[in-house]
Design the sequence.
């Protein structure tokens, strides 16, 4: 680990210099996003039927597929990200302060992609304006769609407020090191700023963090989203109180994996091994292991209840799940992830940032696969079948697969844009320097 001392100039370096790799990654992400936009345009012109999801039974007996599975996945990443950031501030986990803002930015990006998936899956985006918005006051209590929009909006506002409050402190002190062409934006962010407000903002951020931690199991991936599924008695693959903890474990697993990937990428791109240290990445990987283990344990609980003297419907769903290649991939991948993390815990020399990134990518692939299968098989095996499913099984169309690549690309472009405007590492996370690099207070 580098003995180099972190300075304020380190964390503003991305706003001042641009490497060829920045342009290459940006170009690739732009092309991927544009390809998906073209395919989405084709869907808008010809209807949701192009995905095979427009009619019951057209996709092996399901009207939902990867679109809803990916929506749940993005929501989980977002909720897990803000929980991680809130926990760092609420419990004084200063060791992970360098990744707190990364988690907040991941939340903003993921919430945006989750909201986009709502628009995509409605088939006609104008329906959100002509139908959902006008009827919202009397449908919010009963409509799953209205609840999804409500929860996503609530946490977007909370996270944006959270992020803006901490940015005021940093932008004020780093203004002379930030790009001049964004001066008007910085002026808006720091309008009315006084150093006397620092203590007040610190308390406000703490209370916001507390609110986020409290609301997480009630409204987020431990509450509203799993309740929308688990309270449907006619869907044995969805029903059960275990869905709340299961969704929350997947959210935290996915979010920590995303933060590890972001942190390791920035560390390599900007020589931040003295800020995003081995200790930070190793610690995050251990937390990834903890929540991955919780994910596997909760899956085991569901499987045991589905194979030991189950109700007929529950037994059918479980039997189908256990032989499904997607489920085998998801669980097998998580076992590989846990195996590496256990080896790292036993022998520290096993750890490398590249290996942590690899297992994080595997964890994200596993959680996405499990959520898509959860949605699909929940629809394929209802207690009361109104329609017979056509022979075969659901497989995502090119339009659905492109949406995942496209939203990942859009989230990447969002983060790359932020890199050029604001410091993505908090000023509090770097040590004060005693010479001319020291921030004046």
Sequence:
């Amino acid at each position: 680990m580098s003995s180099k001392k972190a300075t304020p100039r380190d964390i503003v370096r991305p706003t001042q210099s641009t490497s060829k790799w920045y342009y290459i990654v940006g170009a690739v992400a732009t092309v991927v996003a544009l390809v998906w936009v073209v395919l989405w345009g084709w869907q808008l012109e010809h209807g949701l039927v192009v995905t095979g999801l427009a009619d019951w039974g057209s996709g092996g007996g399901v009207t939902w597929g990867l679109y809803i599975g990916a929506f749940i996945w993005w929501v989980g990443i977002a909720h897990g990200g803000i929980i991680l950031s809130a926990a760092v501030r609420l419990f004084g986990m200063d060791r992970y302060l360098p990744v707190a803002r990364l988690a907040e930015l991941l939340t903003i990006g993921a919430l945006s992609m989750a909201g986009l998936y709502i628009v995509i899956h409605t088939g006609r985006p104008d329906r959100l304006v002509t139908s959902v918005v006008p009827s919202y006051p009397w449908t919010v209590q009963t409509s799953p769609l209205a609840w999804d929009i409500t929860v996503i909006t609530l946490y977007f506002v909370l996270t944006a407020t959270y992020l803006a409050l901490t940015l005021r402190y940093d932008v004020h002190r780093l203004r002379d090191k930030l790009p001049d062409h964004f001066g008007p934006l910085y002026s808006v962010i720091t309008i009315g700023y006084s150093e006397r407000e620092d203590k007040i903002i610190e308390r406000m951020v703490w209370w916001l963090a507390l609110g986020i931690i409290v609301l997480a199991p009630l409204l987020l991936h431990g509450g509203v989203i799993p309740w929308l599924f688990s309270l449907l008695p006619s869907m044995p693959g969805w029903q059960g109180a275990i869905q709340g903890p299961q969704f929350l474990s997947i959210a935290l697993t996915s979010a920590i994996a995303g933060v590890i990937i972001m942190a390791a990428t920035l560390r390599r791109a900007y020589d931040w091994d003295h800020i995003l240290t081995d200790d930070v990445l190793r610690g995050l990987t251990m937390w990834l292991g903890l929540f991955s283990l919780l994910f596997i344990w909760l899956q085991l609980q569901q499987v045991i209840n589905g194979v030991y003297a189950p109700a007929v419907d529950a037994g059918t769903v479980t039997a189908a799940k256990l032989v499904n290649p997607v489920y085998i991939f998801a669980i097998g991948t998580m076992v590989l992830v846990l195996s590496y993390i256990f080896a790292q815990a036993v022998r520290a020399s096993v750890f490398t940032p590249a290996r942590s990134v690899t297992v994080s990518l595997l964890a994200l692939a596993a959680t996405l696969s499990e959520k898509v299968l959860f949605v699909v098989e929940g629809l394929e095996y209802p207690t009361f079948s109104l329609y017979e499913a056509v022979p075969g099984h659901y497989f995502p169309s090119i339009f659905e697969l492109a949406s995942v690549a496209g939203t990942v690309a859009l989230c990447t472009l969002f983060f790359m844009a932020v890199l050029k405007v604001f410091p993505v590492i908090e000023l509090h996370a770097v040590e004060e320097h005693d010479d001319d690099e020291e921030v004046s207070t």
Residues 432-441 have pLDDT under 50 and may be disordered. Residues 144-174 form the longest helix (31 residues). Residues 8-429 form a domain with the Formate dehydrogenase/DMSO reductase fold fold (CATH 1.20.1630.10).
